[in-house]
Automatic annotation (TrEMBL):
<dbReference type="GO" id="GO:0043531">
    <property type="term" value="F:ADP binding"/>
</dbReference>
<keyword id="KW-0433">Leucine-rich repeat</keyword>
<protein>
    <submittedName>
        <fullName>Late blight resistance proteinR1C-3</fullName>
    </submittedName>
</protein>
<dbReference type="GO" id="GO:0098542">
    <property type="term" value="P:defense response to other organism"/>
</dbReference>
<dbReference type="Pfam" id="PF00931">
    <property type="entry name" value="NB-ARC"/>
</dbReference>
<dbReference type="InterPro" id="IPR027417">
    <property type="entry name" value="P-loop_NTPase"/>
</dbReference>
<dbReference type="InterPro" id="IPR042197">
    <property type="entry name" value="Apaf_helical"/>
</dbReference>
<dbReference type="GO" id="GO:0005737">
    <property type="term" value="C:cytoplasm"/>
</dbReference>
<dbReference type="InterPro" id="IPR002182">
    <property type="entry name" value="NB-ARC"/>
</dbReference>
<feature type="domain" description="NB-ARC">
    <location>
        <begin position="172"/>
        <end position="333"/>
    </location>
</feature>
<dbReference type="InterPro" id="IPR044974">
    <property type="entry name" value="Disease_R_plants"/>
</dbReference>
Amino acid sequence: MAYAAVVSLKHTIQRLLNSSQIPIPSSLPEIIQLTYEKVESLQELFTLEDGSNNQRVKAVERGIREAAWRLEDVLESAHLSNHHHFLSQSHETLNGDFSIRVKEEIIFFTETVKKIEEQLGNASLPEEEEDDVVVSSRIDQYFGLKKPKIVGLTDELLSIRDSIIDFPYEDPERLIVVAVEGMAGIGKTALVTAAYLHPRIVSYFECRAFVSIGPTKSQLRRILLCIIAQINPEFDTSGNAEISDHEEELASCLYSCLKNRRYLIVVDDVWNTRVWDELKKAFPDDRNNSRVIVTTRLFNIAKHASSTIFLHRKRFLNDEESWHLLREKVFGGEKNSCPSHLDEAGRKIAENCQGLPLMIITLAKHLSQAEKTAEYWEKVAKKEHSDIIAADEEFFKVLAPSYHHLPQHLKACFLYMEFFRLIITSLPPSSSSCGALRNFLNQI
């Protein structure tokens, strides 16, 4: 990743500038110091670019990475060559060829950084437009929502339902935002969908809408259109082209559609406070028990959208619930439908999923299509079968947006942690290096 390349280059320049043993030609120190300051500036710019602007960073990453690597290579080779001359020929400085190469790469790097700063300095990269056909297909999926079968989460479903219609708090008439927070694959959307389609909730509200946002820089226009189409199915986007093309007019239209009506809006998978802040302006508070439910992977988004009293942190499944869900998805739900010779391995497989419903469901899909033998299931339980790799890859696609949303410095930290984990698992437990690494990780 580009951020790591920039940090590595910074450390290389530091070593070169701080070396008391490796002399540098008189023409280079000032130029290298200026380059160091430019690298620091670039590192700070990357740090400020958080996950919500990830597309902006991706657009320039390759250029940054290549320029940083090229400059670091020539500095490292100059450093090593000069160190060799220092040891063998006393204080002999870098030769002319090296000085020329260093200057050339510094010029190339500086020009690349200048272009990158201009690109990142833009307000935003152009957002991809969504045509009306795409918007319509997204709207259709919300009209076709199906109630998921909830396994082991009855307590949480009741808690969400109570927050929506049973009013266990003061001043329940006001508009209340309920936030549901939890990591990817933990079942936030399934839980909220089950509540959204609960008969008591369906009958209580005059109108309801369900919209998903996602990690990309979603257009407010698309979100507003999806909600309006569910609240007012007669709204014709083609017949209201002027309104449909402007976010402010659409927000005003939604506000009017909801005015004086008791409504329930589910805003699923929120990643960005800006999008939420713009969207919530379209929700009137007529003190008629209207509700909004927000789901998010990010705790700071949940706190921003809702007060602590209405913040629900989605829990993991316990081992018994995990086994129940796996059995349900593989065999159809009958308690005695799982052959006894698969019970032990099946429970171990469920335990390996660490309480994540999406991981259980993903693995169950592979198990349901494979042979139902004890040998096969034991291999899966021991993570020795290719189906585990396939299931992991599917699950990691869901986790990937969480990684991409991290600030640049935490991405680098995350990759280093995985690197250390691989080293630790390859070292003998008694190794002193292994102990040092474990202590380092514990301190982090």
